[in-house]
Specification:
Length: about 210
């Protein structure tokens, strides 16, 4: 029995592969250092805006150097943090920023995600599968249900085929800036990510 919640990321990927009859993912458009897959064979096409390992094509997930309908499946594991963009003064030096990267504002995240959804629609074949890893966040004292937003942003391009939840095994410490006092907690801290399984729609209703 395949469950929708697992503490093991690789187990979730294997579950998606089994349910969607994927022998091997065709592409990863935010490849990073390649540790995402564990013992699973990585995709043939590996893309990243800032390649960290050999064999990765330098490209943006929103503008891929491949033909239309080139892939039957792809994986997208983008940054999800805001206020932590690398190279920005202050927060750019945070551990989370250095490890994962991020955006300064939520609308930057939205723009990147929307553009990547459109590009994924272009490069995926009929009923192609996009595995989109994401996390909800608090930005500017407001809760953003990113996984729900992605469903809305992808409307007319993809349908939500499945959804998996990955609780965190370890928890990064909350950064404290110098000279500031500990503040009263106003929101529940988020300790889980989503693996959204999106299937390409037969027709682009946005077009």
């Amino acid at each position: 029995m395949i469950a929708s919640v697992s503490y093991d990321q690789v187990e979730i990927l294997k579950s998606i592969m089994e349910l969607c009859k994927i022998e091997k993912f065709c592409a990863d458009i935010s490849y990073g250092n390649g540790k995402f897959y564990g013992e699973i064979e990585p995709p043939a096409f590996k893309g990243d805006i800032a390649p960290q390992v050999d064999g990765v094509t330098e490209c943006s997930s929103s503008k891929l150097p491949v033909d239309d309908s080139a892939f039957k499946s792809l994986v997208f594991d983008p940054p999800f943090l805001t206020y932590v963009r690398a190279a920005r003064e202050g927060n750019g030096n945070m551990i989370m920023a250095k490890r994962f990267g991020g955006y300064w504002r939520y609308d930057e995240l939205e723009k990147h995600y929307r553009e990547t959804l459109s590009e994924a629609y272009r490069v995926l074949d009929k009923k192609g599968i996009m595995v989109f890893k994401c996390q909800d966040i608090i930005h500017n004292h407001k809760m953003h249900c990113t996984h729900a937003n992605i469903i809305d942003w992808s409307r007319g391009l993809f349908r939500l085929k499945d959804l998996f939840v990955l609780p965190a095994k370890t928890r990064m410490p909350i950064p404290q800036q110098k000279g500031t006092k500990k503040k009263t907690q106003k929101h529940a801290r988020i300790f889980h990510s989503y693996f959204m399984v999106l299937e390409k729609s037969a027709t682009n209703k946005k077009g």
